[in-house]
Amino acid sequence: GAGVSQSPSNKVTEKGKDVELRCDPISGHTALYWYRQSLGQGLEFLIYFQGNSAPDKSGLPSDRFSAERTGGSVSTLTIQRTQQEDSAVYLCASSSLDGANEQFFGPGTRLTVL
Amino acid sequence: EDKVVQSPLSLVVHEGDTVTLNCSYEVTNFRSLLWYKQEKKAPTFLFMLTSSGIEKKSGRLSSILDKKELSSILNITATQTGDSAIYLCAVVRRSGTYKYIFGTGTRLKVLA
Description:
The complex is a heterodimer of chains A (about 110) and B (about 110). Chain A contains no helices and ten strands. Chain A is mostly beta strands and about 110 residues long. In chain A, strands 2, 4, 5, 8, 9 and 10 form a six-stranded mixed β-sheet that branches. Chain B is mostly beta strands and about 110 residues long. In chain B, strands 2, 4, 5, 9, 10 and 11 form a six-stranded mixed β-sheet that branches. The model of chain B has no long low-confidence stretch (mean pLDDT about 95). Chains A and B meet through strand 4, strand 5 and strand 9 of A and strand 4, strand 5, strand 9 and strand 10 of B.
C-alpha cells in the first residue's frame, strides 16, 4: 500500500484478555518499530525489527508483551492478560534502508482496557 | 541514560506570532535528529538534521541543529491555527541497530 496501515483502529477489551494489534509497513521497508503513547505523553519505544536480524526487544515493558514479524513484512504485537495501564495508542512505523532514515507512521490503534 | 527533553511543554499563541520550540538531548552515538508534527494519531515528518549549523527550511517552518550545545530549535513564523499540534523531537542513536528516542513533545495551540 501507499502508507503504513494498522488494524484495528480502536480496540476495547476487558482486563485479563489477550489482544493482537497488526501493522502493515510500507512495501520494501526493512525496519519496523512499535511505540506506545499514553495520553499526554511522548512516544515510548517498544520493539524494533530490522531485516532478518534478531529484534531489539529492549523497550517491551513486561513479558506480557511480544511481537513478531512474519516474512519480513507484516508485524503483530500481542499483549497477554491485558491490564488497565496498557490502555494507550499503539503506533507502528517503518523505515527504509538501515533504519536511520525518516520513519513513516501508521494511524495507530487506540487500546482501551476496561 | 539517553534522554531527549523538549521545551516548553505547551504553548499558546495568536495567529501571526512566531514561535521557537527547543529540543535538547543527551544521547550516545548520535546519528541524527528528527522533528515530527502530530495532529491526531500519526506523527508526520518535518525535518531530519545531521549536520550542525545547516538550517533546513520548509515554508514557514525552519530548524537547525547545534551539536556543540546538543540541541535543536524548530521555528514557525506567521503561525496559523492549522499549526496547532504536538511537535515531537526524536534523536536517532546508532548502537549496532538504530534506535529512535523521542521527547515528550511540545503542545502548540494557535488561537485565531
